[in-house]
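Hallway conversation turned thread

IA: we were arguing at lunch whether anyone had actually written out Succinate dehydrogenase hydrophobic membrane anchor subunit end to end. Turns out nobody had. So, for the record, here is the sequence (130 residues) and right after it the structure tokens. Reply here if something looks off.
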Amino acid sequence: MRDTVITKDIIANPKTHYGNAKASTRHFITQRVTGAINILFLGLLLYLVVRLAGQDRTDMVAVIGSAWIGLPLAVLIAIVAVHMRNGMRDTLEDYLHGRVYSLVMMLNTLFCLVIALAGIGAVLKLVFWG
């Protein structure tokens, strides 16, 4: 592997290859779109917090078990997991490089996937099986 010092001249020159342009654009757009969708779903989250404040488990299961609430909540969990993975990727790219970066990114992806599957599974269980 050759050691190239990256300077402002290399970055400013559009003929140099600095990163993967398509992947970077996809990452940028995904981060902005998931952020916007999270803002839209904020109303659902606020409704759930206000509606379920002080309620017992039976009421929570009844509200989240409704398809009108549970299915959008499951979609929200998936979108938040994608947004979380991309946000952590930004931080990891700044501080880690090489094989350590690859390993930590794999662990980041695995963690976000486990969180998403557990959350979605729990909500869908309430929606379809009470």
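OS: looked through it. The chain has a mean pLDDT of 87.
IA: good, adding that to the notes. Residues 3 and 107 are 27 Å apart (CA to CA).
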